[in-house]
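TL;DR need structure tokens for one chain.
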Amino acid sequence: MAKIIYICGLGHSGSTILDLALGSHPDITGLGELAPIVREEDRSRHFRSGCSCGNNARSCAFWKEAENILERQATTTEKYERIIKYFAEKYGDDHILVDSSNNSYNYLSYLDKNHELSVIYITRDFRSWAYSRHLMAGLPVGYFLLRWKLENMKLLRQLKKMRITPHKVGYEELVFHTDVVMKDLFDEMRLPYNDAVLQPAISSSHIISGNIARVDPIKRSGFIYDSRWMLSSRLIYLSALTGFINRTNRKLVYSRLLKNGIKEFPVYGSRRRQDYSRKYN
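>> reply
TL;DR here they are.
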């Protein structure tokens, strides 16, 4: 039974940098988005791309031999099992595999029943996500605001149908309070924490399918926040119409901040301030 961490959520929400960060742990290696690599029609393109290890996929220490085991005809789950077996041969049975394919693919049900699966659901603030997608695609911000809501609800419904309860992580909380959120996440997954996960630049992950951040030395140097949305007048004008989205946003993106109440959030909470005041004042 393999140990697998699956990162789920909308694309462009931080799954690649989280994959890299998890891959900095000595017992974990990320493989990026496995779903398109398993699919026949997408595989060859990804094997021509660059790996996060710094090599081309076909000269990468991990992927250079993996392409052959995927070429033979088989079902999606059979091909996935081949990767799991190959991964275990490379790293050992207890090493943890990370798949950051984002979507709630049907093979998750299989993995949940046949392996030790942890699902992380990462969500980026709807304002940041929508504005970033607007700048990339040129479509109206309002379109992406609505899409954020609908697609997140769809993904969560699919996980619920599979009876999978994910560990929810907000990208903003992860960026601004990385150590607090990472420790909390590892506790939830019942895995030993190692502060190496705070340094995605030293990751041992082999990502050939995923955000270009996988090979960008600046973007993979740490959890860097894209704050361009804060300058958007469009979002200010639309703010009065986004109340129905903000409720979902609070639950998904800021769940850890709200867990013990805003006043008690680690670092800024009143309890920590009082403890230090008693000790030093």
